């Protein structure tokens, strides 16, 4: 795992500083994580890291597209390591996120929604909001 993160940083022309590696490992372990979750996880590995450092690093990694921000209704945005464009199912109760992929057919049909608009579509991402398995089972 650790080595992959070093490689990702190298791809983006960044030095593998302990802070960056710690932060990216935390995000990779959790899949999608908000600043507090990244900080909590990072602090276990790197006890001197501050919330401000996590925030600063995450912001700069988003700016160069290494990290992707997933904006959520009612929850703090979560971050994930940028990969193929993909869609999410999002639990409105706990903010849990899971990746889903759209079929070509759905993408094709969705692209029809902007027919007649002068808009150059690049990626189609869909968030489906609802209640996750765990939250359905809590009173
Ligand atoms: Zn939930
Ligand atoms: Zn995702």
C-alpha termini separation: 38 Å
Shape: globular
Q: How helix-rich are the residues, as a percent range?
A: 40-55%
Q: Overall mean pLDDT score? A: 92
Given the structure, what is the number of helices?
6
**Physical arrangement of strands within the biggest beta sheet:** 4-3-5
What does this structure look like?
With about 140 residues, the protein is of the alpha+beta class. The protein has 2 domains: about 1-80, Arc Repressor Mutant, subunit A; about 85-135, Dna Ligase, domain 1 (2-Layer Sandwich), CATH 3.30.1490. Helices cover about 40% and strands about 20% of the residues. The chain has helices at about 1-10, 20-30, 35-45, 50-65, 105-110, 135; strands spanning about 65-70, 75-80, 85-90, 95-100, 125-130. The strands form 2 sheets. Strands 4-3-5 form a 3-stranded mixed β-sheet, with no helix packed on it. The protein has a two-stranded antiparallel ribbon with strand order 1-2. A hairpin with a 5-residue loop joins β3 and β4 (about 95-100). α3 (about 35-45) crosses α4. The longest helix is centred in the first third of the chain and has 13 residues, at about 20-30. It is globular and about 50 Å long. It starts with a helix and ends with a helix. The mean pLDDT is about 90. It binds zinc ion (ZN) (2 copies).
Summarize the structure.
By secondary structure, the protein is α+β, with helices and mostly antiparallel strands. It has helices at residues 2-11, 18-30, 35-45, 51-63, 104-111, 133-136; strands at residues 67-72, 75-81, 87-91, 97-100, 127-130. The longest helix has 13 residues, at 18-30.
């Amino acid at each position: 795992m650790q080595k992959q993160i070093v490689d990702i940083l190298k791809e983006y022309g960044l030095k593998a500083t302990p802070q960056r590696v710690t932060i990216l490992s935390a995000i990779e372990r959790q899949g999608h994580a908000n600043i507090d979750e990244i900080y909590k996880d990072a602090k276990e590995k790197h006890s001197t890291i501050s919330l401000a450092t996590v925030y600063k690093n995450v912001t700069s990694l988003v700016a160069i597209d290494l990290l992707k921000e997933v904006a959520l209704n009612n929850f703090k945005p979560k971050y994930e390591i940028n990969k193929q464009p993909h869609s999410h199912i999002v639990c409105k109760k706990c903010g849990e996120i899971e990746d889903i992929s759209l079929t070509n057919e759905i993408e094709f049909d969705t692209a029809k929604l902007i027919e007649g608009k002068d808009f150059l579509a690049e990626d189609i991402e869909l968030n489906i909001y609802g209640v996750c398995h765990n939250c359905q089972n809590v009173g």
